[in-house]
Amino acid sequence: MKTLADLNPSEAGCIHSISGLDGLSQRLGEIGFTPGQAVQVVRCAPLGDPMQIRIRGFDVALRKNEARRVTLTS
Amino acid sequence: MTSVASLDPASQSARATASQTSPQRRYTVAVVGNPNTGKTTLFNALTGLSQHTGNYPGVTVESALGEFTSDGQHFLAIDLPGTYSLAPRAPDEMIAVSVLLGLGENVTAPDVVLCVLDATHLDRNLYLLTQVLEVGRPVVVALTMTDIAGKQGIVLDVPALARQLGVPVIPVHAAKRLGLPELKQAVGRASRIAFVPNQPIRLPAAFVTEVEQLCALFAKHSQHDTPSRFLIERLLIDAGGSVEQLLVQDLGETILPQVTTARARLATGGVSPQQLETDTRYRWISQVIAAPGRQTLVATYTWSDRIDAVVTHKVWGLSIFLLTMAILFQAIFSWSAPLMGGIETIFGALGVWISGFVTEGPLQSLLVDGIVGGVGAVVVFVPQIALLFGLIAVLEDSGYMARAAFLMDRVMASFGLSGRSFIPLLSSFACAVPGIMSTRSIDNRRDRIATILIAPLMSCSARLPVYVLFISAFIPAQTVGGVFGLQGTLLFAMYLLGLVFAPPIAFLLKRTMLKGESVPFLLELPPFQVPAWRVVLFRMYDRSWAFIKRAGTIILATTILIWALSYYPDQPQLAEEFAARRASAAPEALASLDTEEAGARLRGSYLGQAGQAIEPLVQPLGWDWKIGMATLASFPAREVIIAALGTIYNLGNEQDEESVQLRDAMRAERWPDGRVVYTPVVAVSVMVFFALCCQCGATLATIKRETGSWGYAAFTFIYMTSLAYVGALFVYQVGSRLFGT
Question: Touching check for A59 and chain B: CB below 8 Å?
Answer without folding.
Answer: yes
